């Protein structure tokens, strides 16, 4: 499995709108096992995105999907920046039927 | 929902053992919607734990479960430290049937 943990900063006051766009594009991504969008509890403009994919190739392929391309276009003006992005290798856990 | 994103450091060379313990304790935690344990792809001793709970109370209650208490006891000697822990409010996403 391939994972990404990203911290994104929204333009001031636009986190809600930005999260709506991110959430709307998360269905129907082949190879995506989990894609969760969360507010940072201590920072009003920070967003955490945690993703789990079957492999890195499925993540890369998702970036070309029309729904994802459209989301990137809509989201861009609301994004102040990516503050951190970590690549992970999820080994397992609870809550996802495909994980052990 | 209540989320935690934690970066833990294993004692040098003990990440695999530590992850096995963390993974073994993740079943049967009431209110736990997701608990994923992942290696950091760029740091041989770093572990990421991403958790989603129905609410903060269910997370707190889990710390008293015998299975979790036992895991904490076994894991402690292998943990060098917690490097970061962020509290989040997951709003939704893909991959979890309870999320929108």
Describe the structure concisely.
The structure is a homodimer of 100-residue chains. Chain A has 100 residues and is an alpha+beta fold.
Report on the architecture of this protein:
- The structure is a homodimer of 100-residue chains.
- Chain A has 3 helices and 4 strands.
- The relative contact order of chain A is 0.31.
- The longest helix of chain A is centred in the first third of the chain and has 10 residues.
- Chain A has a 4-stranded antiparallel sheet with strand order 2-3-1-4.
- Chain A starts with a strand and ends in a 6-residue tail after the last strand.
- In chain A, 27% of the residues lie in helices and 42% in strands.
- Chain A has one domain: 2-Layer Sandwich (Alpha-Beta Plaits), CATH 3.30.70.
- Chain A is globular, with a radius of gyration of 14 Å.
- With 100 residues, chain A is of the alpha+beta class.
- In chain A, helix 1 runs antiparallel to helix 3.
- The interface between A and B is medium-sized, with 35 and 34 residues.
- Strand 2 of chain A pairs antiparallel with strand 4 of chain B, so a sheet runs across the interface.
